[in-house]
Here is the input.
Amino acid sequence: MKRSAPVLGVSETVCASKYEIWWEINQFGAIMCGICGISEFNGGKPVDYTTIESMCRAIKHRGPNDEGMFVDDHIGLGMTRLKIIDLETGHQPIFNEDKTICIVFNGEIYNYKELRNLLSKKNHRFSTQSDTEVIVHLYEEYGYDCLHKLSGMFAFAIWDKRTRKLFIARDRLGEKPLIYYHDKERFIFGSEMKSILECEGIDRKIDLEALYHYLTFMSIPAPYTIFEGIRKLLPGHYIICDPERGVTVRRYWDVSFEEQKEETREDHYVDKLRHLLRESVRERLISDVPLGAFLSGGLDSSSVVALMSQLSNGPVKTFSIGFEGPSYYNELEYSRLVAKQFGTEHHELMVRPDIVNILPKLVWHWDEPFAISSAIPIYYLARMAKEHVTVALTGDGGDELFAGYSRYLWDREAEVWSRIPRGMLKALSTGLGLLNPSVSNRGSNLVRRLKKYTHSLTLDRDSRYVFYMSRFKDTEKSNILSPDLNAEFQKRSVSSESILANYYRQFDGKDNLDRRLYGDIKASLADEMLTKVDKMTMAVGLEARPPLLAHELVEFTAATPSEYKLNGRTRKYILKEAMKSIVPDTIMYRRKHGFEVPLDEWIRDELRDFTRDLLSEANIKRRGMFDHNYVNKMLDLHDNSVGNFGHHIWILLVFELWCRAFIDRV
Here is the structure.
């Protein structure tokens, strides 16, 4: 295929305020998708139409160009639509032929044309060209088993008037969100918690265990939400609301790590992976609107762009972003290299974010405390991309599938080092703890990593892994929490290790690396990565599609021998082998770099006064959650460059902003 030369014309340094103007002008022209609804139990009062309207209005940012509602006695469904396929006749809710089955749907079904052909042969009649209607007839034909035939990302609700049951489901990996609440009288659901909070009688009481886990992971793991009584539906699960049996949650899919025994040749796995990658990208190119890709210059997004360029008739539109500051916050040189290699129409942006003004808006979109700072570049990247496309392919999921994080290597090596006598390890950890390297010297990061790593060796295997992933360690949590909360958590024996431990009990493989990957696919992938991408792309009317998370590809990779994922010290080994001669070696073998922001610098500079004001003694005491003396100590140490506490402070800052938006409602 002949490729045109890359266009590198959209390259500039801007203040966020320039894009604020674009956002204010176009926020009502964006097209997104969200669903919500209420089911009243036991012959309760009929659903109020105006309540469904309010629920839709709360998530209007997900789809302001199209809205639909259905209310029938004790059931009410609502949606705001992202128009991607069947732009003219895909209005929701959508019904079957005799109006006994109704659906509201968020997502994309990539194999809907094949399913439509299958169902047409079984005499199902269609009135639209949408993927949504396919689900209705698939449910008619197969009931709850229809989920096994769907390939895509989705959250939907089906009302079956014949059985008086509400059937709600979420996709296998958790690409699309589904939040719910229920008591003895009603069941309420929505794509975001905002819609649920529109209903009367919802108590905004903070779930203390969720807060504890937030301090650990910087996000709140499913099924928790920040509010008691409101829960996230786990990926790969569905709910049945039955007027007689109440609410039942069931799992319909899990990924198996039991290795395939029939084939051991490396080239078999490499060839099969390359084929699955290509087919997954091909599926996700289906769209009736402009489409492009996020390009970070890393292996995962570069692989997606490379395959897109092979499958597209014209230049792929690619989008990259960098932050002003130290060079390690800017990867634009690598994304330019990939753009040039594949002749893309490349757009990039160097950002000086107006972080004080933009942060409250982002916290509102996050819905609950969410301190994953890489959400900020995703937001700016999505907002730039939305000026040119409505759908963007991403490289999300590669690290969890192919062992891309350094913690997998550390965890394996720790198995060897942990054989050193425990007393020697504790002595070494204590000695390193006495060192206080200057935060201004990047080389001193080695000392900090050594201190962290050495201490982890004194822990048992699973505690060590959670320690790697934790932001506030257990001792830090005991210092930052108020005495009352410390006493409450001790009484309850709360531990963030339980989050991964619950998943490890479900693991069906034998290899420890695979065990880690399984837990991370279930937890951090869904609760951090996919949540971040959904919230930030939906905030601006852009749909994100991650080809690496096609469930067939995930299942194949899981069953691949672990030595093809982490081979010696080579992470993502099989992906690199599959993309050899396709992705440039410079990209393939460069050092991994996360999507970072200069958080430590921001909190010492432009966010300093803002942070001091929000985390003042009066505000901390008013919340009653944290110890002001310890908070102030962290602020002073960070300001004076005695330590780097940027991420710790960020967690508290986001929590206070969230409280103002959702508790104080100001």
Observations:
- The mean pLDDT is 88.
- DSSP finds 28 helices and 20 strands in the chain.
- Residues 165 and 562 are 43 Å apart (CA to CA).
